[in-house]
Amino acid sequence: MVRKNRRPRFPEDYIKNKAEEYNSSKWMERNQKRSTLSSIEYLFDENLYYREDSRDKRGDSQVILDLGCGTGFSSEILIENGFRVIGIDILNDMLSKAREKKKNFKTSKGLELILADINYLPIKVDSVNQIISISSYNFIIYGKENDGEKVKLLHDTAKYLNKILKINGRIIIEFYPKDDTELKMFNNSFTNNGFEGFMVKHNPMQKSGQTFLLLKKKV
Ligand SMILES: C[S@@+](CC[C@H](N)C(=O)[O-])C[C@H]1O[C@@H](n2cnc3c(N)ncnc32)[C@H](O)[C@@H]1O
Q1: How many structural domains compose the chain?
Q2: Cα 104 vs. chain centroid, distance in angstroms?
Q3: Which numbered atom of ligand 1 lies nearest the CA of 8?
Q4: Which ligand 1 atom is the nearest neighbour of the CA of 88?
């Protein structure tokens, strides 16, 4: 059974029978889909806009990258909202479930699934309109021993995300930093690499709880 009240462990909670447990958990599906819907709202948050941006482009066949797409709960919502989705995940046990489900999606043509690491993306420069990551981005520093290594990895990844995003592109990261220090580390990686924006916590009293980073590419 999916454990509801503890931080998930990577990769243990997403491999073999745990991938199946994850995928068949109604609670998980509801949470992932809810966070994805909030993130779509944030993508179009008016505080993130330049005056000249169009405000009603919702989906509209834009290419969106779903970083750490898992078994495809978020990707499904993105497709239903009109995006063309590229889902990236590092674990085949998770991605293969997304591949299975894709067959039953209403518009499966709009979804491409790629087995890859967020830190080494096989995506061309200047090729995506938006980026989203739901409950995955905190795992990208997995295996890094010290803060120096973590900072370097986060820096390099944010820098490349900036390169692949088209002008006016935005990123919404919904994640669970372990504490304030880690939150700052993630946030700085973006603000030091050509992004600006702000952070939203649905429960501001929670130091390590659910956090949304709302970011746009600086012009
Ligand atoms: C909570 S799950 C997926 C959530 C996803 N939003 C969904 O709808 O199912 C987190 C995912 O992040 C993926 N992940 C962790 N580190 C990654 C990395 N470095 N590159 C790509 N995916 C990664 C895991 O394999 C896992 O599938």
Answers
A1: 1
A2: 23
A3: 1
A4: 21
Is residue 43 one of the residues assigned to a domain? yes
pLDDT of res. 51: 46
Across all residues in the chain, what is the average pLDDT? 91
Identify the residues whose C-beta falls under 6 Å from ligand 1.
10, 14, 32, 68-71, 73-74, 88-91, 94, 117-119, 134-136, 139-140
Centre of ligand 1 from the C-alpha of residue 150, in Å: 18
Evaluate whether 133 touches 67 at the Cβ level (below 8 Å). Answer: yes
Q: Is the residue at 69 inside a domain?
A: yes
> Of all helices (H) and strands (E), which one includes residue 104?
none
Q: How far is the CA of 52 from the centre of ligand 1 (A)?
A: 34
CA angle at 137 for the pair 134 and 141, rounded to the nearest 5°: 165
What percent of the chain is predicted at pLDDT more than 90? 79
Q: What CATH number did the domain enclosing 108 receive?
A: 3.40.50.150
The answer as to whether 16 is a domain residue is yes
Helix 92-102 with 17-24: angle, nearest 10 deg: 40
C-alpha span between 52 and 67 (Å, rounded): 28
Looking from the CA of residue 94, the nearest atom of ligand 1 is 27
Give residue 118's domain range. 12-49+62-217
Residue 4 lies in a domain: no
Q: Model confidence over 51-95: pLDDT tens digits?
A: 455 545 566 779 999 999 999 999 999 999 999 999 999 999 999
Task: Give, using CA atoms, the residue closest to atom 6 of ligand 1.
Answer: 134
Q: Give residue 178's identity as a one-letter amino acid code.
A: K
Please indicate whether residue 45 or residue 142 has the higher confidence score (pLDDT).
Answer: 142
